[in-house]
Amino acid sequence: MIEDGLRLVGSAQTNRAMEAELVRIVKKALARRPEAPRRDGTGQLAYAWDAEVARVALTYHRTSTRVVRDLYASSARRLEPLYEELVEDVRRDRRDWHHGLRSISVEVRRVDEFAAGERQVVGTVKNAIVDGLGQRGARVRVEVDEPDALVVARMDDRGRMLVGLDLTKGTRTRRGWRSEAGEAPLREHVAAVMAIEARYDPRRDLVVDPMCGAGTIAIEAALAAKGAPVAMGDPAAPLWPEARPVVVAGDRDLDVLVAARNNAKRAGADVIFQRGDLVTLDRERIWSLAADAGAVPERGLVLCNPPWGERLELAEARLFYGALGDWWRGLRDFRAAFLVANPAFEEAFGARWAMKKPLSSGPLRGYLFVYEP
Ligand SMILES: C[S@@+](CC[C@H](N)C(=O)[O-])C[C@H]1O[C@@H](n2cnc3c(N)ncnc32)[C@H](O)[C@@H]1O
What we know:
- The chain is of the alpha/beta class.
- It has ten helices and 15 strands.
- It has two domains: about 1-165, VC0802-like (2-Layer Sandwich), CATH 3.30.2130.30; about 190-370, Vaccinia Virus protein VP39 (Rossmann fold, 3-Layer(aba) Sandwich), CATH 3.40.50.
- The chain has helices at about 15-30, 50-60, 80-90, 120-135, 190-195, 215-225, 255-265, 285-290, 315-330, 345-350; strands spanning about 1-10, 40, 45-50, 65-75, 105-110, 140, 150-155, 160-165, 205-210, 245-250, 270-275, 300-305, 335-340, 355-360, 365-370.
- The radius of gyration is 23 Å and the shape is elongated.
- The chain starts with a strand and ends with a strand.
- Bound molecules: S-adenosylmethionine.
């Protein structure tokens, strides 16, 4: 079946953040709202194809990892019918999605329910696309290393095999600016999700991350505030060039902080770095750093991913998260969002959260806790 869809793929439990971000950037870039999406599972949004919205998402959408154009869908469960259906769809398709393409590569994801192994599905999809395009007089070869386009095939939550073009050509959680990382750097798109879930408003909020590691959260917040293109080196103009985000980041480890500063420089993100233990970054210090930068934000927002805790003993973790709770209470009127995997956090932090939701960064399965003052 011929499909025409735009799909934003991200981490589990991030549909709401991905949708909210798309509304924000499309309203700014195109002066209209995108239509409401269909949610496919917990980490995929499906929209009708809209080339303008796709361009905006591809350039500016930070909370997704991939932007895909869905082209074909098949309910086949075996290789032969999949090939036959796909080759026929490609042959009779009148769209020119393959315009200018000389080579493709194929990747499959989540095809465990299919009655064949991944490699066989890859081979079948490749053959069907190359043969179907060939029947339309278009010659496309398969190229694994540097293809002009990446085709992805994946089962959707209705059990259909969806075949589409991965417009991001692979996951883009790595933006390219983080060549120096701390101990456990957060995935960039997860940092972007944190900012959206905490309702970061760059016109009003000062952001502080007192344990910034490689600086991922601070850098993503500063870039999101400006609506900077996701890919480093993309010459597209930022959506909010006039934005002056105030973002403060600290860490007690000097080497880590130097790395974070270099990362911010590469990313073109304005972040105020401050070395020291979190207790030294108190309310007065934070506001005076903002004042030195000539900024007068209305409110404060903590965005932080404290040490996960595999390395912390339970007693030590309790003390540490308790001290973190005391530090936050000392800020008095700051909202806060913490991404943590350690089960000791919730109780030790010592405050009732306003929101708690599962959020993972790679193999680390954690929760995002949001607190209101
Ligand atoms: C999980 S890492 C943060 C990772 C970060 N989000 C990133 O993406 O790179 C935690 C950081 O907290 C810092 N840290 C731990 N205890 C601290 C304290 N008491 N004060 C300041 N920084 C601390 C560590 O040096 C480490 O860089």
